[in-house]
Amino acid sequence: MLHEALKYKTALNRFARENFMDSPLDEDWAKAEALHGFLQEFNEATKAFSADRHPTAHFFLKMVLAIRLVLLDEAWNSNELLNAIANAMYTKFQKYWAQPNMVLLIAAVLDPSQKLDLIKFYFYTIGENVEVKMRELKQYMRRYYLEYEKIVRCQSLHVFIPPDEQDTSEDTFICSPSGSGQLCGKRRVEFAFEQFASQNSSAHPERSELDAYLEDPRVPKRADDSINVLAWWKKNADAYPTLSLMARDFLAIPVSTVSSESAFSAAGRILGKNRTSLSPETLEALVCAKDWLIGFNDEEEGEPMTGKRMFDSEDSDDE
Fold first, then answer.
1. CB–CB of 85/38 below 8 Å?
2. Sequence-ordered strand ranges (E) for the chain
3. Which one of 37, 227, 253, 283 is at 20 to 30 Å from 60 when CA atoms are compared?
4. Pick from 120, 127, 106, 125: which is nearest to 66 by CA?
């Protein structure tokens, strides 16, 4: 409203004069312009948080830091109105956002362009003990990782291996009586080497997926300062099978409830007072078809796909 009013300031003043109405004074317009600049930052954050066609959980931390920076800006001290508004908002900000949810912090870490560096920067900026907070975050991540590792292990046990592709270790190292002594000796050496290597590697355990992901360098962003995080995890699912499963769940967490509320409002527009005889199956088909068509158009325009559709796109093609 303020944006449109400032755009047509001259026209509104002229309309008020021609109709003998009171028009805002110059100082009123100055207050409106200052308030518009103050609220502009929060308008961008609201649009980012309420998006429903791409994940939002991984960049909430940057938006929270941006909001905090705006509220603490000393430029508002010169304006009595904005100073009072900023102080009241910062009080609420400290109440709800001073200690962010640990799950959302993990979602931020699962952005390959951020990882732990953004979390360290966040705690450093708000004046928290970085080492203590990072230790707590890593403990939570390892707990979740171990739980998801169990899920991946259970899924791998149910994978069917055809008999002709199964490994028969007994045939590998048992020499036939008619076999040559050179070939038999080579197999024995290989078997002994494998045993020695397995025993020696137990003293130096292999890095887990989580350790490898956190220690690897961050993925650079594109020129437009964006990265398709879902596409990255889909591409690297073979390298990080457990973490990709975590990313699918954690990145699907909406920061705002607007996206879920819009789904119900869409159904309300389809099934209204003048259209009440639709069966549940027809209503479900209309809602799903609308969502699929919108997602298809987003994909054509180059916008990122939603979480589950991104991971399931290959499966649907195979079917």
1. yes
2. none
3. 37
4. 125
pLDDT in tens, 13-23: 999 999 999 88
Percent of residues, the chain, with pLDDT higher than 70: 71
Q: Let me know if 147 is exposed, middle or buried by CB neighbors in 10 A (0-12, 13-18, 19+).
A: exposed
All structural domains of the chain with their residue ranges: 258-319
Instruction: Find the mean pLDDT for residues 139-145.
Output: 92
- Give mean pLDDT, residues 82-86: 90
Task: Quote the CA–CA distance of 192 and 194 in Å, as a whole number.
Answer: 5
79 in Cβ contact with 27 (< 8 Å)? no
Q: Cα separation of 57 and 49, whole Å? A: 8
Give the pLDDT score at 173: 41
Please enumerate in sequence order all residues whose Cβ is within 8 A of that of 139, keeping only pairs 6 or more positions apart, or say none: none
Output the 3-class SS for 51-110.
CCCCCCHHHHHHHHHHHHHHHCCHHHHHCHHHHHHHHHHHHHHHHHHCCCCHHHHHHHHC
Q: Which residues neighbour 227 within 8 Å (Cβ) at sequence distance 6 or greater?
A: 111, 112, 113, 219, 221
pLDDT in tens, 238-267: 889 999 999 999 988 887 776 656 655 666
Estimate the crossing angle of helix 60-71 against helix 26-49, to 10 degrees. Answer: 160
Q: What is the rounded distance in angstroms from the CA atom of residue 271 to the CA atom of residue 278?
A: 7
Find, among 242, 249, 248, 205, the residue nearest to 230 by Cα: 248
- Which CA distances in Å does 193 have to 127, 166, 171, 198? 53, 22, 17, 9
User: Three-class SS of residue 221?
Assistant: coil
- Is the pLDDT reported for residue 127 higher than 50? yes
- What is the number of other CB atoms lying within 10 angstroms of the CB of residue 54? 18
Number of helices and strands (H, E) in the chain? Answer: 16, 0
How many CB atoms sit inside 10 A of residue 314's CB? 11
> Coil, strand, or helix at residue 99?
coil
